[in-house]
Amino acid sequence: MTPNVKDDGAWKVSGISRNYPSYRQHRPITSESWLDGKIVDDEAEGLWRINDKLYDLSDFAARHPGGSSWIECTKGTDITEPFESHHIEERARGMLSKFEVRQAARPRNYKFTLKENGFYMTLKRRVREKLRKIDYSPTKKTEFLHLGILVSVFLFSWAGTALDSLIFKGLAGLALCWVATSTHNYFHQRDSWRMYTFNLTMMNFRNWRISHALSHHVYANSLHDLEMSMFEPFLCWIPDRHYASKTQRLISVMISPVVYVVLFQGQFLIRLVLSLTKGNVLHWDDLIGFGLPTFIYLSTGVDLLSALISWQIIIAVGSFIFGFIGLTAAHHDPRILHDGDAQRKDFDWGLYQVDTIIDRGDIKWSDLLVLTHFGEHALHHLFPTLDHGVLKHLYPEFRKTMKEFHVELREINHWGHIKGQNQQLLRIEKNPLPPGNTKFKQVGL
Length: 445
Description:
The chain has helices at 31-42, 68-73, 80-86, 91-95, 119-131, 138-162, 166-183, 205-216, 226-229, 246-261, 263-277, 291-300, 304-326, 349-355, 367-372, 377-382, 388-391, 395-404, 414-426; strands at residues 48-50, 53-55, 100-103, 359-360, 411-412. The chain is mainly α. The longest helix is centred in the middle third of the chain and has 25 residues, at 138-162. Mean pLDDT is 93; it is low at 1-6 and 439-445.
């Protein structure tokens, strides 16, 4: 059900912004349409907005240490929160004055604050100091784990096809899912060859840099969160009957496994159809997705049809596990803040991130599981460019800052997240109390 924004009612207003997101008024919802809508809503006058100032970063894009795509795709938008969370050191802020054009004509569309004495900026200063003292060797371990998972995709795919073994094909699908979830560590960072391995799934890291890094990470669980909007009307987590009725929500719970199975292929097919009907949105690196079936065909000696069938089984298994892990990772539970629920009076962006997350407490003992199951989720949202292996060293600073600001890091196990995600799909009533008003026991459900 697509909301009709012409109707009256408070449901069409986001709790984190002045305007109802423009991109939600048109279908299909894509990364490209999200950016187009954001340009309209952010009123950055064709420039880059950070807080209440406009900057011209056109000439800087090619020199941006993280890669030009981050700058190019955000032209005409408000990048305040991505700028702060992606630049922990002060060097980037010190360079801004070189590119300043003028003050923005209107206040920001978003209600978030990043005050120097607020939760996020206080934590950021402490993290910056900590990073200067610790060893970054976990990055090397993460790279080793990612490479091992990548190699296992091809080994299990070969064995599954050559031996006609469903077990090995299933393991190949699991490894393919883990390639996607571990590569997620890299497309938050500066450009590298590792981010391209995400495309083996038939999805594309370029789209996910928008839908995940720029949308979901900044505006988690809100109407501005593309990772929620793209699933509607099949899955709806917004607690309001205007977005999905009780019947639709019951159907969502029943069909969610089917949605998981078609995530990989579905995203490629959508991009293909859009390219044929509305203008090209495909890139040269979309061809990487066909590297796995090509390898299977050339290395195993089976006929082309058998190779394609084997590949589709691997893709379907990988897609299902990816959807199952991703949508039950940290964000959807009736006790987690979603747009429409009562919010804190303090709109500090860091507090908002903590309020939209319940962490996985059962996987923190394993660097492999943290990397492949979106672990250390709260810290990852707050500092997305940091390697997952580094995040575990930041808990002393994190807990100290949470204690000072009277906020709690909630944790449950995966079963609790699975149960909570389905409960959230069914939830219509909004939470009347803002986060922090009730105690949450940090145990599995």
